[in-house]
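Recap from last week: sequence in, structure out.
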Amino acid sequence: MRIDIITVLPELLKSPFEASILKRAIEKGIVEVHMHNLRDYTNLSYNQIDDYQFGGGAGMVMMIEPIDKCISALKEEREYDEVIYMTPDGETLNQKIANGMSLLNNVIILCGHYKGVDQRVRDMFVTREISIGDYVLSGGELGAAVLCDTIIRLIPGVLNNETSALTDSFQDDLLAPPVYTRPAEYKGMKVPEILLSGNFPKIEKWREDQAYDRTKKLRPDLLKD
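Predicted structure tokens:
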């Protein structure tokens, strides 16, 4: 998979891709992540990429021309499955969306700033708009990093144990069951005996029951269907 991120703050995005799972995925050649500074695509003084909005009002708007130049240049090199705009009014990211996007080959992620992008950018180029929650960030970079992490960890070969992702919360619309490791007893608190029994069918049934009970208690909205 190749991910091209269009941003005005590429330095803000570097850290997540220089550590842990994302770094290993890049080093293995499983995924490519490229960052494109939008200011490289403007001819205006001071590398301007925003302007006042028509009709008045507070806040600047990202102009269409630099974004058009950047996306067009990328599309000259390859075809893209999606052009994603990170925006608070997009569809809320969930595990189902991440699962589907992990199967794509080439993706562009556009990070908004200020009051957002000129609407014509959304009309002309954007194929999908995604939000990571009902709140507003200073820009789309952190949301883009979250989106990339959710996608990349699902790609075969990224995790050391590929079945791990299949048992994560939300994969089957349930929260994950509680997990334990050594020691079996700590300050009087014991690991449930079933997990030490070696009876794997019963252990699996226990985990399923725990997942359902936790979901019913903490996120009953997930059980609405």
